[in-house]
Amino acid sequence: MSRSTEQHLDEAARLLAMREYLRVRRSPDDREFDAEIVAASVKKVQSVVDAHANSKGEMIISAIAQDIGIRFEEVKGPADIKTLEQRYLVEQRELGFGRLADELADPSVDALLFQRVHAHHNAHDRWIAVINLQETESRAYWSRPHEILHRLAEPPQRRLPFYRHREDHKSRIERIIDLGAAELAFPKIAYGRRVAEVTQRPLTWDLVKAVRKAFAPSASLQSAAKAFLRYWPHPAFLLTASLRGRIRHPHTDIALRISIDGFSASAEHSNVRFVQNMRVPATSPIAHSHRSGRSSTEYENLASWTTRGGYVLPAHRALTSSIQLGAVTYGLVSGV
Question: DSSP secondary-structure letter at 119?
Answer without folding.
Answer: S
